[in-house]
Every structure is written in structure tokens, then in C-alpha cells.
Recover the amino acids of this structure.
């Protein structure tokens, strides 16, 4: 596999990053994960807009223009013959002597990209749905910035797995914030799609935005507001959205079936419309 590191396409075995890189030492970095379907990038513009916002919030310089980043994304798709999968892009504040203070502004940011070939469209879990375990949301309070500090989401997924579930939903004061690496949504008995409103508490998902628009265009009533874990357990349907899962039905929360305990009609329809749109 060819990866991209600071200006060069190299075989993954030859790629190097400094041990002083602040991404490595302080998790001082941000990232984006963009989907490739049939060799095409999905929602590239919105992902780059969010990257620019993450960089801005952390006062981190951008390593390249959006046009250059597009060229690199395409360069990796071509070099690796990627038909379906993900492109991971990470920007860190670069290498500097270890110090909590940010290094001088002219420190070069590090830019790393790699591809992951994966079956996304025909994931078996999309047919069966996934089981969720709730865990307390112990992340920092700026989840709208897509930083590489992913230890807690990683621990949350391990906790969910140890409880026999597939993924975790993070809960704060009884309210669902989001999934460990996706946005959480429920559907009420009258067919209204409920999803947490945007704030610093959740990542502003690109798939979330796309799906909400498709839902509204399809005549689904959408309400952006907080919902409790209790409300989710008693909902007619639940699902998550992300670049890697699109729309993924949730069939169980903390061992309790959601609705009929099978993928709901609205979640299935939204997945179908989303994938049709992506073609
Ligand atoms: N995760 N919320 C969190 C905490 C996330 O990490 C993600 C994405 C999302 C969904 O965002 P989007 O629709 O833009 O992918 C929501 C990526 C896929 C990851 O970390 O692998």
C-alpha cells in the first residue's frame, strides 16, 4: 500500500514521522475520514470544510489547500486502486521539542494520509442491525473538533464489546450525546426523526447532515433536539450515521430491543436513498 507523508507518496514500510511529532506526544492533531465508493470520493467538500474549522478552532496552520488535498486524495485512490473503502487524513501541529506550549507558528504541520480498502456498501450488519451498550460520556467538552484524542471512544467500544454489544452510545446526564464514532438518531412512534442538535457536545457529522437533508426531502419530519437514553430505548427505531457506516440500524440498546428488534423501515429507507445518491 502506498501512503502519503509530508509531501511524498511512499510504500507504507518506508513512511516515517518524527518521535517528537505533537500528534504522537500530545494528540495535538485533527483528522478526517472520507469514504470512497466505486472509486469516487463522497462529500469531499464538506469534509474539507470541517477540517478547516477543526484547524481554526485549534489555531493550527493548514498543511495544504483544498485543491492540493483533493489531488492527494485522488493520488492515493489511483495508486492503491481503491474502489471501496476509506481515506484517513491526519494533520498535526508538527515536530517540536516536547513542551506543553505550542511551538512557533512557522513549525511545519505534519500531513499523513492512507487508504483502507473495506466492504462498506454490503456490510452484513446493515441487514441485521447493531446492538448498543450505553456508557458515560467522559470525553472532553469540545467534541465538535475532530481531534485524534480517541482513547476514550476506543475504551467505550471495548466496554460495549465486553457487554456483548457492537458499539457504544455515550450518555451525559441521562442524555445521549452520540455514538463512539458516529452520530445517534431515533425515530418516534409517529415517524419523526429525532437527532441531537449541533453544539460543542457532538461532532458535526457530514453523514448526519446529508441524511437529515435526504430525510426532509423524502417527507420525514426531522426534529433536532436532545433525547434521553430512556427515550431511545422506547423509540420505534434507532440508527447511527458516519462516513464508514452510512446509515446503520440499531436494534438493541442495553439488551432491550428497539421497536420490533429488527432494522426499522425509516433507517432502511434512508440507507437506500443515501447509497443511491452516492452513485
Ligand atoms: N468518525 N461522531 C463521532 C464522535 C465520530 O468520530 C464520527 C466519525 C461521527 C460521524 O461523522 P461523519 O458522518 O462526518 O463521519 C460522529 C469517523 C468515521 C472515524 O473516526 O472513523
Amino acid at each position: 500500500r502506498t501512503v502519503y507523508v509530508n509531501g511524498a507518496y511512499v510504500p507504507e514500510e518506508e513512511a516515517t514521522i518524527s518521535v517528537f511529532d505533537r500528534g504522537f506526544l500530545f494528540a495535538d492533531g485533527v483528522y478526517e475520514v472520507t469514504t470512497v465508493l466505486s472509486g469516487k470520493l463522497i462529500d469531499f467538500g464538506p469534509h474539507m470544510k470541517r477540517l478547516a474549522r477543526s484547524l481554526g478552532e485549534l489555531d493550527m496552520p493548514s498543511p495544504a489547500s483544498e485543491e492540493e488535498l483533493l489531488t492527494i486524495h485522488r493520488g492515493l485512490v489511483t495508486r492503491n486502486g481503491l474502489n471501496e473503502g476509506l481515506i484517513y487524513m491526519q494533520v498535526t501541529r508538527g515536530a517540536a521539542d516536547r513542551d506543553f506550549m505550542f511551538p512557533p507558528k512557522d513549525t511545519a504541520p505534519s500531513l499523513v494520509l492512507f487508504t483502507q480498502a473495506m466492504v462498506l456498501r454490503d456490510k452484513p450488519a446493515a441487514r441485521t442491525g447493531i446492538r448498543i451498550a450505553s456508557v458515560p460520556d467522559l470525553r472532553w467538552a469540545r467534541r465538535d473538533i475532530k481531534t485524534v484524542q480517541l482513547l476514550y471512544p476506543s475504551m467505550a467500544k471495548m466496554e460495549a464489546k465486553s457487554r456483548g454489544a457492537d458499539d457504544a452510545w455515550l450518555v451525559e446526564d441521562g442524555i445521549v450525546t452520540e455514538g463512539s464514532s458516529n452520530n445517534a438518531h431515533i425515530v418516534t412512534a409517529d415517524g419523526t426523526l429525532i437527532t441531537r442538535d449541533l453544539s460543542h457536545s457532538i461532532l458535526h457529522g457530514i453523514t448526519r447532515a446529508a441524511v437529515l437533508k435526504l430525510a426532509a426531502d423524502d417527507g420525514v419530519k426531522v426534529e433536532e433536539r436532545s433525547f434521553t437514553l430512556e427515550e431511545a430505548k422506547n423509540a420505534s427505531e434507532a440508527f447511527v450515521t458516519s462516513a464508514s457506516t452510512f446509515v446503520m440500524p440499531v436494534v438493541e440498546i442495553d439488551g432491550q430491543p428497539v421497536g420490533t428488534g429488527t432494522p426499522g423501515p425509516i433507517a432502511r429507507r434512508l440507507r437506500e436513498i443515501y447509497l443511491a445518491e452516492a452513485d
In short: The mean pLDDT is 98. The two ends are 26 Å apart (CA to CA). The chain is about 30% helix and 30% strand. The first helix runs from residue 22 to 26.
